[in-house]
Amino acid sequence: MTSDEKFIQAIVEKPDDDALRMAYADWLVDQGRAERAEFLRAQCMLAHVPEADRKALYDREQSLLDQHWREWLHPLPSLLDPPRSFLHRLAGHISRRLDRPVWLCSRSSWLEHSHRYDRETFMIQFRRGFVDDLSLPASAVLAHTEAVFRAAPLLRALSVHSVGKCEFEPLMRIPQFASLTYLHLSLDPGTTIDPLIRCPHLHVLRELGLSLLFIDAGCVQALVASPLMNQLTRLALGWFAGAEPVRTLVSAPTCRQITGLRLSWLDGEEPVHIVANAPNCCHLTRLDLWCGQIGDTGIEAIARSPYLSNLEDLKFGFGRFGDAGAAAIAASPNLPQLRSLHLGSRTLSEAGKKLLRDRFGDGVFLY
Q1: How many domains would you assign to the chain?
Q2: Is 270 part of a structural domain of the chain?
Q3: Is the C-alpha dihedral spanning 184, 290, 267, 252 positive or negative?
């Protein structure tokens, strides 16, 4: 084992110890890799400097990545194309929102289809000097497993998209998944989640995301009845086939320990009422509901709910609610902890927006 590998192994074994990372940075300087050391130190400093001083660090990080990304991501660059200017700007925007550098690359027509990630888009996030979060297609993960985890030895979050039926089973047999605390899977239509339920490598997983056309009650029942559900604290699901899958989810006792819940592409407004009236949602601190059909009655149901008093962050994506829903949220005594509110609606008047800003101040995000 080389000295470099020994340092990295020590950091893998004690990932929360920044002193080891600083010692590694000192060693990198001695080896003539001063810019890699600078990047690592800057990342570790971010959590300890005032917000006003972070811009210079962000800018320097992005500059260093522009120059050295192929070297620092070796051997991953064989999967990636050179970055494009639009992706650079988008990555910089995401970096600032996430408090960490983000790198976006594409192998095909991302710019021509900029409203979505296509099947060959890659996203990389760095945290405290190392790759922490990757988004890759299943084909790349399966074909380059060793390369991916060698380039990202401290990987904790992985999003795998375009997971075909034949790829799901071998994907869930990858032993390196044992280090993941976050996993998001975008499955092809008709795929069952049995390989996920049977996976023996997800002992430390705490956050799970599933995108599947369409999630039915049977799929949800299999998930909530599995041992995996007992260890999760955050869950993201979408697309839904009716309201019954949501009812199955929030009726399960294992839903009670979930603190962050994202439900996307809900089928109608009924699922919103189901969530609002679910006692098992009492520990939620973050709730994200995406449904173009959410109207004022859905918003009012959330505002009246006696079970959502722990909510700190609430998101409604692209609904059709107006001032009545805004007034209900702004006046609700049942949401005492709510600090961050994201609303997507084209029917809110300036008066409705003012009600929300008066209650939540800079914590309101309207789009």
Answers
A1: 1
A2: yes
A3: positive
